[in-house]
Write a structure and sequence with these properties.
Elements: E1 2-6, E2 14-17, E3 27-36, H1 39-46, H2 49-54, E4 59-60, E5 64-72, E6 84-87, E7 90-91, H3 97-100, E8 111-112, E9 124-128, E10 132-134, H4 141-144, H5 147-157, E11 166-170, H6 174-185, E12 190-194, H7 198-206, E13 211-213, H8 220-228, E14 232-237, H9 242-250, E15 252-260, H10 272-277, E16 282-285, H11 293-303, E17 313-318, H12 322-330, E18 339-343
Parallel strand pairs: 11-12, 11-14, 12-13, 14-15, 15-16, 17-18
Antiparallel strand pairs: 1-2, 1-4, 3-5, 3-9, 3-18, 5-6, 6-10, 7-8
Helix pairs in contact: 5-6, 5-11
């Protein structure tokens, strides 16, 4: 089969020819219909400091995907050839303290598809049956392939009760953008989205934000105080940018809540007293997707049509055009680039 791999340490990827994986007794083999490129894949493509520490080539990349089951291991029950599926990318050990507390998404020994084991930028991917999620048949594969990042957004939105609340979405990358319509469904009365990129702000408007603000042109904190009086009730911090984190906490009302998802490149300094203690702020870190609570919510949101992710798919390419795809994500220029979908088994 064809697969897109990091074959050796250093920047770039290579399209290779390799064996179709053989499913073990507890695995399923999936023919990949659509796979989307994540920011994590771009880090690995560039071979940045994080990737050099974390990734051990050779490795087939890719963890956001949808496909169809083509083979099941002999011990697998409840899954059959032909089912449309995606997978939770975190393979957990079920034995660490977090797992035993029912917080599988926080497993300390998780193995990640496309990071620690072969991924979905390939014609076929093999995953443990317990990680398989059966997709609703009426959800198109390219939309179903977005459930990994969409799950991050859904997890963050449902961290706090947003009914009747004012919400700041700090950072309009794909996950921030996905959070906008979900926050609306969850009952937010005011959704403000911030990002320094004008293209992303346009998309934020299209996804349903009430107000979009460019922090390089406007005083976000003042604007939010004018609108709300005391600041926003809830912040969804999706950027991981130190300046945006400062602004988000400053724009938070006393007693407000922060769901923090964006990862920073370096440790960040915050005024602990003013922004957390004296403010009585609640901060919840958001990692991964709750297994399977988040997935059930996603199914409902996608299947009912309550959330439409299609405006976020800006590019569709065959797997072989990977250099163009990664180029778009690394150097978008003035072009609007959100999610880029690759089709390992052809585009029709
Ligand atoms: Zn991802
Ligand atoms: Zn665990």
């Amino acid at each position: 089969m064809k697969a897109l791999a990091k074959t050796r340490p250093g920047p770039g990827l290579e399209l290779i020819e390799t064996e179709v994986p053989k499913p073990g007794p507890h695995d399923v083999l999936i023919r990949v219909t659509a796979t989307s490129i994540c920011g994590t894949d771009v880090h690995i493509y560039r071979w940045d400091h994080w990737s050099q520490q974390r990734i051990h080539p050779p490795l087939i990349l890719g963890h956001e995907f949808a496909g169809e089951i083509v083979a099941v291991g002999e011990a697998v029950q409840g899954l059959e050839v032909g089912m449309p599926v995606s997978a939770e990318g975190h393979i957990v050990d079920h034995t660490c303290a977090a797992c035993r507390a029912g917080q599988l998404h926080l497993c300390q020994n998780a193995q990640v598809i496309g990071i620690d084991r072969p991924g979905a930028f390939a014609e076929y991917v093999c995953v443990p049956a317990e990680n398989v999620w059966v997709n609703a048949p009426d959800v198109p594969p390219e939309i179903a392939s977005l459930q990994d990042p969409f799950g991050n957004a859904v997890h963050a939105v449902y961290a706090f009760d947003l009914a009747g609340q004012s919400v700041l979405i700090s950072g309009c990358g794909p996950i921030g953008l996905m959070a906008i319509p979900v926050a609306r469904v969850a009952g937010a009365r005011l959704i403000v989205a911030t990002d320094p990129n004008a293209q992303r702000l346009k998309l934020a408007q299209r996804m349903g934000a009430d107000l979009v603000l460019d922090p390089t042109r406007e005083d976000v904190v003042r604007k939010i105080q004018e609108l709300t009086g005391d600041g926003v009730d809830v912040v969804l911090e999706m950027s991981g940018a130190p300046a945006a984190i400062q602004t988000a906490f400053a724009a938070l009302r006393s007693g407000g809540k922060v769901a923090a998802l964006g990862l920073t490149a370096e440790p960040v300094a915050l005024d602990w007293n003013e922004l957390i203690v004296l403010k009585g702020a609640t901060v919840q870190g958001i990692y991964g997707r709750k297994i399977w609570d988040t997935w059930h919510r996603m199914r409902a949101l996608l299947q009912t049509g309550a959330v439409d992710l299609s405006p976020l798919i800006t590019h569709r390419l065959p797997l072989s055009a990977y250099e163009t795809a990664f180029g778009l994500l690394m150097e978008p220029g003035s072009e609007l680039v959100a999610k880029v979908i690759l089709y390992p088994n052809g585009m029709d």
